[in-house]
Amino acid sequence: MTGVQAPKHPKFISVEGADIYSRSKSDGIRFRFVSYNILAQVYVKSSFFPHSPSSCLRWKARSQAILAVLKNLEADFLCLQEVDEYDSFYKGNLERCGYSSLYIQRSGQKRDGCGIFFKHENAELIIEDRIEYNDLVNSIQDDDCSCEEKSENVVTSASHDVESNKGSSPKTTLPDSGDPNDPRVRLKRDCVGIMAAFRFKKPFHHVVIVANTHLYWDPEWADVKLAQAKYLLSRLARFKTLVSEKFECTPSILLAGDFNSTPGDKVYQYLISGKSSSGFSPECLEELPLPLSSVYATTLGREPSFTNFTPGFTGTLDYIFFSPSDSIRPISFLELPESECPEVIGGLPNFSYPSDHLPIGADFEITME
Fold it and tell me: What is one Pfam family matched by this protein (predicted)?
């Protein structure tokens, strides 16, 4: 990046209005959590980002800029989406920064995926699980499952219940071939998620569940996104039960990712309330909504103005949710620029921000119950 502008290094803003590290040291567990869609290099083409300087799109420059951003964030947990150079770049480079990692590549022929990177000196991995949303297709194909009729609703409702022009990103490839009204085609989007339980090592033991996901992109397939969100919470609820029973604990939950959904839409409302007016609700998934709160809505009083900024779409698609309780609370949030900020005018990526998305994050404090 010699001779060009260095990547922007955002700061964490204390909820109390003072620098987080200037306050007296707490007896609780403090950790930093960041989520970031880093933009898979396979999607980086000048035709997708004609507004971006070509030199900042090249992998050699962009990879080093992303790595510089990740290092500067100094997170204990990094939830990254659109990771497509995991083995060749991210795994090794972040290992040298003290991170261990878990990774799931998207289904089918897709090259990118989701990764959880964690500082192993602070937290110990105790169990993990993986989510492939293509498994939703199995509920359609199983004639003995009571969810077939309701699964049909997810695909037929789209023509009547589309949330248009929301939650899109122009770089994604076209949908798989086949009849889009066939639920087996419609639900097979090759999207994935990953979740894991970690035990903090000090100052006391506490288990936290971290989940990372990337939901389907198309704004005209809101029903599929909602189906994925419901499956996600169902799996996460089961995982929480498993962890609670196996390790005799009450785990905290952190869920992050690119949800390709804007504040107030059906997916967002479902994630924060467990309720939706329509969509996919099969009994066979044993839907068990979890109470979740958004970090930015809690700390800032609103969601950010945007987390994805391109000339074709500007809006908030990325979120960090947590299970509200007396034992965990966000004590800071990662600042994000406003649309009039010089570093974002014209759209991302650029030399200040190496992805078309912005990193989001928070510091959390866990107190002993």
Answer: Exo_endo_phos
Backbone angles phi, psi at 340, to 5 degrees: -85, 0
What is the tens place of the pLDDT at every residue in 162-194?
Answer: 333 345 554 544 445 689 989 999 999 999 999
d(CA 111, CA 118): 22
The tokens of 246 are what? 């196996």
313 contact partners, CB below 8 Å, separation of at least 6: 168, 169, 170
| Tens of pLDDT, residues 35-44 | 999 999 999 9
Cα(355)–Cα(67) distance, integer angstroms: 12
Question: What's the rounded Cα separation, in Å, for the pair 225 and 261?
Answer: 8
The C-alpha atoms of residue 205 and residue 8 are separated, in whole angstroms, by: 35
* Residues 232, 215: Cα–Cα separation, whole Å: 10
225-248 pLDDT, tens digit each: 999 999 999 999 999 999 999 999
Tell me the residue type at 84.
D
CATH number, span 12-17+27-137+181-276+285-366: 3.60.10.10
* Band (369; pLDDT cuts 50, 70, 90): confident
Domains in the chain: boundaries: 12-17+27-137+181-276+285-366
Instruction: Kindly list the distances between the CA atom of residue 24 and the CA atoms of 19, 141, 325, 366, in Å, as whole numbers in the listed order.
Output: 11, 58, 23, 15
| Residue 139 to residues 112, 135, 282, Cα–Cα distance (Å) | 25, 7, 9
Number of Cβ within 10 Å of residue 129's Cβ equals 18
Q: Which of 40, 47, 44, 48 is nearest to 56 (CA)?
A: 44
Q: Which residues contact 23 (CB under 8 A, 6 or more apart)?
A: 14, 16
